[in-house]
Specification:
By secondary structure, the chain is of the alpha+beta class. The protein folds into 4 domains: 75 residues, 3-Layer(aba) Sandwich (Rossmann fold); 68 residues, 2-Layer Sandwich (Dna Ligase, domain 1), CATH 3.30.1490; 130 residues, D-amino Acid Aminotransferase, Chain A, domain 1, CATH 3.30.470; 97 residues, Glycinamide Ribonucleotide Synthetase, Chain A, domain 4 (Alpha-Beta Complex), CATH 3.90.600.10. It is built from 14 helices and 22 strands. Helix 1 packs parallel to helix 11 and helix 7 runs antiparallel to helix 8. The longest helix is centred in the middle third of the chain and has 21 residues. The protein is globular. The protein starts with 5 loop residues before the first strand and ends with a helix. The mean pLDDT is 95.
Length: 432
């Protein structure tokens, strides 16, 4: 595929997709950028198209009607559900893994078995089908080692993982997986996993099925409460790079995790094309895989892409052409910190339709990515749990954090909630 001007269709509507649209819009190789369905922020980067991300036929119709050269898929659900396969059968170039490759995220049981087969370091585990939850409980009793981790096999929006401190909690969570409608759908199989001690971090890789290049690393903050307490969320903030991952450790990660993953997928006849997010636990024994994700993280994407000096569209074209081996990744030396502004009550129940003010006062050096917003009668309103992503930048992590929060405090909507400690543990690691 030549690098002439390209028409791009980006699938998705969140903060991740706004940051991807922002980065793609900077490419001199871009002709027209469409975002389906997009949000008020992506509309500033391209043209929003009112198409549901799970309506593959409408996506295909739009591609054919608008001479789209490449479809770039942001979220995991359409990838796991086969949008790449569907479009590629019609001759469309897609940036994103096939459904078979996306099983690395779509099925935790598959991912664990894959890692076991290819000797990729991860926690010990055992999988149980939904009709054998009693066997899972017996297994946990027999092991009698706590905490123990329970994971729903399928996609659960970041809410299908439970850390249980005793058998009573494990039993309660198993019952929850059986009775909660969303969890039950994801829990056709349950993975019982040993608890890994350490700190979590993530590495983001771009792969053309043969070559894999590390883009950057970051650390997410999943819990709703400060000090990493409370319920899991889609992510309340992130920063990059993290001092947890040194250059030496990156070499270990590439050798023991990235390379065998890409090679294993080739052997598995499901070569991996697109972004691979590798969630890691940095343990005393070295880095181990917590999970794979088949796309950029959200909100990690919002700190990684601003740090990337490469043209994202050029990287996508190189991936399509399978010549990533001719590319070198370049990042700047600055730190980024992203703070998520959420609606009070997230990740459980929250109200929508709150007026947002103050975004015009965000300074030129900060970035503001829309996640759950909507424009109605010329007013910007809240329209989701995670509403806005504010990204600060600095020569040090401290500067990036301060810059982010300076701008967070300029934005207002009723019952806005955000953590005040995003990035703080990164400073702690640096001081150790």
């Amino acid at each position: 595929m030549s690098l002439n001007q390209k028409n791009i269709l980006l699938i998705g509507s969140g903060g991740r997709e706004h940051s991807m649209a922002w980065k793609l819009a900077q490419s001199e190789k871009l002709d027209t950028l469409y975002i389906a369905p997009g949000n008020p922020g992506t509309a500033e980067c391209g043209i929003n198209a009112d198409i549901a991300i799970d309506d593959f036929q409408k996506v295909l119709d739009f591609v054919q009607e608008n001479n789209i050269d490449i479809v770039v898929v942001g979220p995991e659900a359409p990838l796991v559900n086969g949008i790449t396969d569907f479009l590629e059968r019609e001759g469309v170039t897609v940036f994103g893994p096939s459904s078979k490759a996306a099983k690395l995220e779509g099925s935790k049981a598959f991912a664990k078995a894959f890692m076991e087969k290819y000797d990729i370091p991860t926690a010990g585990f055992k999988s149980f089908p939904a009709d054998r939850f009693d066997d899972a409980l017996d297994y946990i009793r027999e092991k009698n080692t706590y905490p123990v981790v329970l994971k729903a096999d399928g996609l659960a929006g970041g809410k299908g993982v439970f850390i249980c401190d005793n058998i009573r909690e494990a039993e309660r969570r198993l019952v929850q997986m059986e009775q909660n409608k969303q969890l039950k759908k994801a829990a056709g199989e349950i993975v019982v996993e040993e608890f890994m001690k350490g700190e979590e971090a993530s590495v983001f890789v771009i792969s053309d099925g043969h070559t894999a290049l590390t883009l950057h690393n970051a650390q997410d903050h999943k819990r709703i409460g400060e000090g990493d307490t409370g319920l899991n969320t889609g992510g309340m903030g992130a920063y990059c790079p993290t001092p947890l991952i040194s250059e030496e450790m990156l070499e270990v990660i590439d050798r023991s995790i990235v390379s065998p993953t890409i090679t294993g997928m080739q052997v598995n006849e499901s070569p991996y094309n697109g972004i691979l997010y590798i969630g890691l636990m940095i343990t005393e024994e070295g880095p181990k895989v917590v999970e794979y994700n088949c796309r950029f993280g959200d909100p990690e994407c919002q700190v990684i892409l601003p740090s990337l000096n490469n043209d994202l569209l050029e990287l996508i074209v190189a991936t399509a052409d399978q010549n990533l081996d001719e590319i070198s990744i370049q990042t700047d030396d600055d730190y980024r910190c992203c703070v998520v502004m959420a609606s009070s009550g997230y990740p459980v129940q929250y109200e929508k339709g709150k007026k947002i003010s103050g975004i015009e006062s965000v300074d030129d050096q900060a970035l503001l990515f829309h996640a759950g917003t909507v424009l109605e009668n010329g007013e910007l309103l809240t329209n989701g749990g995670r509403v806005l992503n504010v990204v600060g930048r600095g020569a040090s992590l401290e500067e990036a954090i301060n810059h982010a929060y300076e701008n967070v405090h300029r934005i207002h909507f009723e019952n806005a909630y955000f953590r005040n400690d995003i990035g703080a543990k990164g400073i702690k690691y640096k001081d150790q």
